Amino acid sequence: MSATEPAPLAGVSAPCWVHLVTRELAAAQRFYGAVLGWTFRPGAMGEDFLTARSDGVPVAGIGAIASAYHVAVTWMPYFSVQDADVAADRIRERSGTVAVGPLAIGKGRALFAADRDGASFGVWQWTGRAASLAPSGNRSHAWLRLRTRNAFDAAIFYGEVLGWESGESGTCEVAYVKEEVLVRCGGRPLARISSGAVEAAPDPMVRPHWQVQFPVADVAATVREAERHGGTLLELREVPHGSEATLSDPDGGHFTVTDVRSPAGSDDG
Questions:
Q1: Contact status, residue 110 vs residue 98, Cβ threshold 8 Å
Q2: Residues 98, 169, 131, CA angle at the centre, nearest 5°?
Q3: What does residue 221 show for φ and ψ, rounded to 5 degrees?
Q4: In this predicted model, what pLDDT tens digit does every residue of 237-259 receive, in sequence order?
Q5: What is the pTM assigned to this prediction?
Q6: What is the distance of C-alpha 230 from the center of its chain?
Q7: Alpha helices per DSSP H over the chain
Q8: How far is residue 76 from each of residues 103, 114, 146, 240, measured CA to CA in Å?
Q9: Are 6 and 54 in contact (CB under 8 A)?
Q10: pLDDT tens digits, 97-145
Q11: Helices 219-228 and 25-36, interaxial angle, to 10°?
């Protein structure tokens, strides 16, 4: 993340973490260490988990739990909530799906869910002593983009589940910019929601999904390194203010690297 200024995480509804659900921990460690320069430490949640660090700052989690929980290999964003049970009820009431949880993991409670268009996401409730909403020292871990069927409908779903625009102190705010929804937390843009995904499309790139975007200094060099270590380039795009590439790791987890400095600085053009 050395090419960018990290955005602070703030509030009970902010994106608080990104996590790779994979099958083989050692293989993921080798790939992301080589491609993104991450180092790793054992996670607090057991032997099947690692915490990835960039310049000493925790930036992502990796868990070899896809087989155990019968869930897809995927990069998943997590959102902070005050009560995971309340969040689970809200998801179900709005025709979303709770796949796993809430369950106790480490110093919190987590659930794996999907919105009503099928995009996977996680919810995290801190339960430990002196629980923090920003475990990485107030740095963002990645930028997020939801590609969905209808951005405005999705913003209503997540807003009602997570309490965006509730007026409660510290909650995220949304703005409608160029036919997209921009999510700001602590006054800084952290996520975008855009329309145009097709729910039944055979191509997972076209189906509704949360796209995890990691800032890098050189997109082309990162793509070369990913391919050298068994990854696959899925899409390379020139966007205003820079470029971005969507990649698949050897286990099938999709992620995006970008040299754009802000999630508000690129569009579909």
A1: no
A2: 60
A3: -65, -35
A4: 888 778 999 999 999 999 999 98
A5: 0.81
A6: 22
A7: 25-36, 66-69, 84-93, 151-162, 219-228
A8: 17, 10, 11, 26
A9: no
A10: 999 889 887 778 889 899 999 999 999 888 765 444 344 333 446 788 9
A11: 150
Phi, psi of 160 (to 5 degrees): -75, -35
With vertex at residue 40, the alpha carbon angle to CA 10 and CA 131, rounded to the nearest 5 degrees, is 30
Report how far residue 211's alpha carbon sits from residue 157's, in angstroms, rounded to the nearest whole number.
18
- Kind of pairing between the strands at 74-80 and 15-21: antiparallel
- The candidate with the shortest Cα–Cα distance to 50, out of 59, 58, 61, is 61
Question: What spatial distance separates the first Cα and last Cα of the chain, rounded to whole Å?
Answer: 24
Tokens 């929601």 sit on residue: 193
Which residues pair with residue 193 across a beta bridge? Answer: 146, 181
Structure-token pair, residue 40: 């790793």
Token representation of residue 267: 């569009």
21: nearest Cα among 58, 80, 81, 68: 68
DSSP 193-238: EE----TT-SSTTTSSEEEEEEE-S-HHHHHHHHHHTT-EEEEEEE
Residue type, 215: P
| Residue pair 174/155 in contact by the 8 Å Cβ criterion | yes
* Residue linked to tokens 């994979």: 22
Q: Residue 192 in contact with residue 263, Cβ under 8 Å?
A: yes
- Greatest Cα-to-Cα distance within the chain, rounded to the nearest angstrom: 48
Owner of token pair 């996590």:
19
CA separation for the pair 49, 52 (Å, rounded): 10
CA nearest to 77, candidates 263, 221, 224, 238: 263
